[in-house]
Design a protein that fits this description.
The complex is a heterodimer of chains A (85) and B (644).
Chain A lengths: L1 H15 L20 H15 L5 H6 L7 H11 L5
Chain B lengths: L2 H13 L6 H17 L3 H11 L6 H13 L11 E7 L4 H13 L4 E5 L5 H6 L4 H5 L3 E5 L15 H26 L2 E5 L20 H15 L4 E4 L1 H8 L1 H4 L2 H7 L5 H18 L6 E4 L10 H8 L7 H18 L3 E7 L2 H10 L10 E7 L3 H12 L6 E4 L3 H10 L15 H6 L11 H22 L3 H7 L2 E6 L3 H13 L12 H9 L3 E10 L2 E14 L2 E9 L8 H15 L4 E6 L11 H4 L3 E5 L5 E6 L10 E3 L5
Classes of the chains: A mainly alpha (85), B alpha/beta (644).
């Protein structure tokens, strides 16, 4: 889990071009500077590529919806990853 | 520690990465770029970054490079002409445009970009007061998908209804082009239509007149046929077919963000657009320089002998080399110059071209044949010089990673594609770089290789004679000087946008702008065609000047480098002075605007007897010639009468 979180944060730093960006489970999209709808798509593209997963059309919207945050998104991501024994 | 050396080394390690080493080496390379950037080595970073922008990178890596590029400070010293590019999209163009920007940067073209909101391209063009016209674009790129088709009559329409709809569809686009062009005087690049991957009529899609697939085909044919001189179609239809239409589309991202295709595909898409725009700006490559052993045939001619090399029918690998030669021959027939650069005894190297029955390429096809034991970096410089083209117009193809690395390091202006080990993949390895893009089809393209060959023969004549005057006289040159006419307009504009070396001001003009000058009595337009006993060089020089009070001001003076040192400048100047005098003018004035490529003509005006009038801080120099005291310059060119 921590490993995934670290990779996830690295993707965020890369996409938002900010080497000091730190996010927590409670962080929402609105709190990250520059996270508009265009950057959102760039982020989805980067995460899909980094983790080898694919989000459904409705799931792509979810991260920006009210009540959603980095924590809920990470759980969605993890549910898509192959389970390690 | 020398950051430049580290950078070049890092670039080479990354470009030559094999079997999954790519991402790691790319990461290291980016780190080096960041470090060098922090140390203030902006210009090194810029030049190395340029070489790193290749279409074989993935979307995420290119976005990383785009961010690095964005952080670069503006270039100092050289005044680079900016291309004002307006992007009008039927879809979200942000990501596509950034990659186009990046690839153009890789080609050495700086752009200023205006992007309209998606889906409003019609309004932007029709509304005279739109931001598009405020921006005053040189080039408008209209990016569309099949969803922007406005008149598809549905699958039950009659053949006649479909035909009407196609006509209307095409006419609407033509009107939009004309409107944008008339108002902004811009060139236009437009996507044709890529159909969706699904085909409701399955195998009958092409046969049924009212199927969407058939409709798209007809519209594309109509658009290609209707293209005006100032419109270049970008063939998204074939691009998406090349990639595979299901692979091309990512419907999720269209529904979400109106992205036209899957993100990875944006790389090919942007690269293809940039290559076309680059060709319009003179950045397309001109010459393919080929290694011989294991590049155009299998084996080593010096060791294996004529019977031992692999080329021809009957053996799979020999057939692969044969197919590669056919591809090269196709390029050559279309105007790409071929040269060789091989470590070999010249006699050995020539033998297959002369004697091997199954070789497709013959000595005739090679405009500059170099085979010796010198290092290849030196040879490439010689080739560029002999052909009178810039190093950045060369593509070097060699199966040896060591030779490729050497050339990349010592002549970084030459494009060097990574070559796969299997010759069956050679065509793809070159084609994917889109080096030889064409903005339009000019008949001169088909003759160009002939010019260069005749040039090589002239050079031989040159070396046989010691006295340059006697040589020039022996060429029996004659020239035709004329205003720009409709028959010569295409070639004139092509030269204006392509000439880099013998070009005093490097001002680029579109067809529309040149047409405007021809109609304006204050402008003097002149073109020169040159022929000699070796052949016809065609239209090789353009001069545009404008009358300002007592003076004729030379705005543009350029010439094809294949007729350097033949006295064309003197011939043209004499004509111009005579004209200016007949109009009662007192002086001729001109300027030289330095670019990275036109050092050649720095002393052009001085050598023609002009006097300096001033040097600007950016290196620009101004010159004038007093017509009262002027006497004609000597040359050996006869004037031939203008036809008709």
């Amino acid at each position: 889990m921590d490993d995934i979180r670290a990779k996830f944060q690295a993707v965020l730093r890369d996409v938002f071009d900010d080497d000091t960006l730190v996010v927590h489970d409670s962080t929402t999209a609105a709190e990250v500077e520059g996270w508009d709808s265009l950057m959102h798509i760039n982020l989805i593209i980067a995460i899909e590529k980094r983790f080898g997963v694919k989000f459904a059309t409705a799931e792509i919207s979810r991260l920006k919806e009210p009540g959603q945050n980095i924590g809920t998104f990470l759980r969605l991501l993890i549910s898509k990853l192959p389970r390690t024994a | 520690m020398n950051p430049k050396v580290d950078l070049v080394e890092g670039l080479e390690r990354f470009l030559s990465a094999k079997n999954g080493q790519g991402p790691e080496r790319f990461g290291l390379f980016v780190e080096l770029l960041k470090q060098a950037s922090e140390q203030g080595c902006q210009e090194d970073v810029r030049s190395v970054l340029r070489s790193a922008i290749v279409p074989t990178l993935d979307y995420t890596s290119l976005r990383g490079l785009y961010r690095l590029k964005r952080h670069l400070s503006p270039m100092v010293g050289v005044s680079q002409p900016m291309l004002r590019l307006a992007v009008l999209g039927g879809f979200t163009t942000d990501q596509l445009t950034q990659l186009i920007d990046l690839f153009l940067f890789g080609l050495g073209i700086c752009v200023e970009i205006y992007e309209a909101e998606y889906g409003v391209f019609r309004q932007e063009i029709i509304d005279q007061r739109s931001d598009l016209y405020q921006f005053r674009p040189h080039l408008v790129y209209i990016a569309t998908t099949w969803r922007d088709l406005a008149h598809y009559p549905g699958p039950r329409a009659s053949a006649a209804q479909v035909a009407d709809a196609v006509t209307q569809e095409v006419a609407e686009w033509r009107n939009l082009w004309n409107t944008a062009h008339e108002r902004a005087g811009c060139q236009i690049v437009m996507d044709n239509v890529a159909p969706p991957p699904w085909r409701v009529f399955a195998n009958q899609e092409a046969a049924h007149p009212a199927s969407l697939g058939r409709y798209v085909t007809e519209v594309n044919r109509g658009l290609a046929g209707e293209s005006q001189r100032y419109v270049s179609m970008h063939d998204v239809d074939s691009l998406s077919a090349e990639i595979g239409r299901w692979t091309w589309h990512d419907e999720r991202l269209y529904h979400h963000a109106k992205l036209p295709c899957a993100p990875e595909i944006l790389v090919q898409y942007a690269h293809s657009v940039a290559a076309l725009v680059g060709a319009m700006r003179g950045a397309a490559k001109k010459c393919l320089v080929l290694d011989l052993d294991n590049t155009i045939w299998g084996g080593v001619i010096g060791d294996d002998g004529l019977a031992g090399i692999a080329i021809g029918q009957g053996d799979p690998e020999s057939e692969a080399f044969l197919a590669f030669q056919r591809y090269l021959k196709g390029l050559r027939d279309r105007g790409v110059i071929l040269a060789t650069c091989s470590k070999n005894d010249e006699r050995n190297a020539r033998e297959p071209f002369e004697k091997h029955a199954e070789m497709v390429l013959r000595l005739d096809d090679i405009s500059c044949f170099v085979a010796n034991w010198n290092d290849k970096a030196t040879n490439l410089r010689v080739i560029a010089q002999e052909l009178n083209i810039g190093l950045s117009s060369l593509v070097f193809v060699d199966d040896s990673p060591a030779e490729r690395a050497l050339v990349r390091r010592f002549v970084p202006d030459v494009a060097v594609p990574e070559m796969p080990e299997d010759p069956a993949e050679y065509i793809w390895a070159i084609a994917r770089h889109r080096y030889f893009e064409m903005a339009e089809i000019a008949t001169e393209d088909f003759q160009r290789t002939e010019y260069y060959k005749a040039n090589a023969e002239r050079k031989r004549a040159e070396s046989a004679t010691m006295d340059i005057d006697a040589y020039l006289r022996s060429l029996e040159m004659w020239a035709r000087i004329d205003v720009v006419r409709s028959e010569t307009l295409d070639r004139t504009v092509q030269l204006i946008n392509k000439s880099n070396q013998f070009n005093l001001t490097t001002r680029r003009y579109s067809v529309a702008q040149v047409m405007g000058m021809v109609q304006d009595s204050r402008w003097v337009t002149r073109t020169v065609c040159l022929a000699d006993r070796f052949g016809d060089s065609g239209l090789i020089s353009v001069l545009l000047a404008r009358v300002e009070e007592q003076s004729l001001e030379i705005n543009t003076w350029l010439m094809s480098c294949r007729v350097l040192k033949r006295g064309v400048e003197a011939f043209l100047l004499n004509q111009l002075c005579a004209l200016a005098r007949s109009r009662g003018l007192r002086t001729l004035s001109g300027e030289y605007i330095p670019t990275p490529k036109n050092e050649l003509v720095r002393d052009h005006y001085a050598s023609l007897g002009f006097r300096g009038r001033g040097v600007h801080p950016d290196g620009r120099t101004e010159w004038y010639l007093d017509l009262d005291s002027w006497t004609p310059l000597p040359h050996f060119i006869k004037e031939s009468p203008v036809d008709g």
